[in-house]
Amino acid sequence: VQRLPNETGYEGWLRYRPASSSRRQEGYTAVCQRIVARGASEVLLSARRELGKGLGAILGRIPEFLVEPPVDGRYLGIGTVAEQWLLDALAVAGVPRPTGDGFVLFGQGHATAVFIVGGSDIGCLYGTFALLRRLQLGEDLPNGPVVERPAMALRMLDHWDNLDGSVERGYAGRSIFFARGEVVADRQRVLDYGRLLASIGVNAVALNNVNVAPGAMALPTKRHLGPLAALAGTFRSFGVRVFLSVAFEAPVVAGGLLTADPGSPEVARWWSQLAGGVYDYVPDLGGFLVKAGSESQPGPRVYGRTHADGANVIAAGLEPFGGTLLWRTFVYDCKQDWRDRSTDRAKAAFDEFLPLDGLFAPNVVLQVKSGPMDFQVREPPSPLLGAMANTSQTVEVQLSQEYTGQQVHLCYLVPAWKRALDFDTYASGTGSTVAKLVCGASSRTGMAGVANVGDDPNWTGHHLAQANLYGFGRLAWCPDLPAEQIAAEWAGLTFGPDPASADVVTEMLIASAPAYESYTTPLGLGWMVTPGSHYGPSPDGYEYSPWGTYHFADSVGIGVDRTTSHGTGFTAQYREPWKTIFEDPSTCPEDLLLFFHHLRYDFVLPGGTILVQRMYDRHFEGTAIAEDLLARWRSLAGCVDTVRYRAVEEKLAEQVRQAREWRDVINAYLYRKSGKNDENRRPVY
Ligand code: GCW
Question: How far is the CA of 654 from the centre of ligand 1 (A)?
Answer without folding.
Answer: 25
